[in-house]
Q: What sequence folds into this?
C-alpha cells in the first residue's frame, strides 16, 4: 500500500470536524487526515501557528471559508511546509465596512444571549436556497453552530474581522492549488474564488453547481472527488 499523504483540514466559522465528515470517511485510504482546532484562538495568526505546531513537517492543506483565511496566514508563516493547497468557498480580500458592520451586529447579538437569532440569520449565508429546505442539511449546520457556541463564535468573528488581506501573497503561492466554490455561495461568492484563482499561478478553479457556502456538506461527493484528484494528481 502506498504511503498516505499528510492532509490537514481547516474548518470555517462555527464549523466542527463534522464539516469534513464525508471527506475524512472517503479519503482515509490515501490521506492521513488531521483537522485544525479553531476554538482556542482569537486571531488568524495564532490559529495558523497552532495548526503549524501540530501539523507534520510537510503536508497538503484544504481550508473552507475561515479555513481559507488561515491558509493565507499559514503561507506567510511557513510556505515551505505546504505540499499542496485547496481553498474552498473563501476569499482573499478583507471585509468591506458594510460587512464589518454586519459582523459587529452579530457579535452584539451573541454577547447579549441571542445566539438563536445569530444562527437564524447565518443559515441563508451558509446554505443555498434549495438546501435551506433540506432538514438533514440544516440540522447538520445548526448542530455545528450549537457545538461551537456563542463564546467561540465571538472569538472567531473577531479573528476574521482583523485578518490581513490575502491578495498580497497570491502571486507567491507556487504549490499545486485547487480553488473550489459553490455556484450559489452567498458568504464568499464565486467572484472571490475567481480572484484567488486568477492570482495564484497555475491554480485550478472548480465550480460546483446547486451548492452554497458549505460545499463539503451540500455536495460532499463532488468535493471529495475533486480533493481526491488534487491529492493524487495535483
A:
Amino acid at each position: 500500500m502506498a504511503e498516505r499523504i499528510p492532509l490537514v483540514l481547516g474548518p470555517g466559522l462555527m464549523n466542527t470536524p463534522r464539516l469534513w465528515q464525508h471527506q475524512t470517511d472517503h479519503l482515509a485510504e490515501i490521506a492521513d487526515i488531521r483537522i485544525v482546532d479553531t476554538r482556542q484562538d482569537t486571531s488568524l495568526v495564532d490559529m495558523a501557528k497552532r495548526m503549524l505546531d501540530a501539523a507534520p513537517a510537510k503536508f497538503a492543506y484544504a481550508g473552507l471559508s475561515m479555513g481559507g483565511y488561515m491558509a493565507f496566514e499559514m503561507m506567510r508563516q511557513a510556505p515551505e511546509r505546504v505540499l499542496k493547497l485547496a481553498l474552498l468557498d473563501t476569499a482573499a480580500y478583507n471585509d468591506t465596512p458594510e460587512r464589518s458592520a454586519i459582523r459587529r451586529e452579530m457579535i452584539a447579538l451573541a454577547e447579549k444571549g441571542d445566539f438563536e437569532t445569530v444562527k437564524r440569520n447565518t443559515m441563508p449565508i451558509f446554505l443555498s436556497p434549495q438546501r435551506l429546505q433540506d432538514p438533514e442539511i440544516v440540522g447538520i449546520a445548526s448542530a455545528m453552530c450549537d457545538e461551537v457556541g456563542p463564546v467561540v463564535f465571538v472569538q472567531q468573528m473577531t479573528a476574521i474581522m482583523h485578518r490581513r488581506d490575502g491578495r498580497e501573497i497570491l502571486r507567491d503561492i507556487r504549490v499545486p492549488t485547487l480553488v473550489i466554490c459553490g455556484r450559489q455561495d452567498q458568504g464568499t461568492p464565486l467572484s472571490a474564488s475567481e480572484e484567488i484563482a486568477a492570482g495564484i499561478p497555475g491554480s485550478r478553479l472548480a465550480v460546483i453547481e446547486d451548492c452554497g457556502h458549505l460545499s463539503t456538506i451540500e455536495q460532499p461527493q463532488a468535493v471529495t472527488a475533486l480533493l481526491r484528484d488534487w491529492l493524487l494528481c495535483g
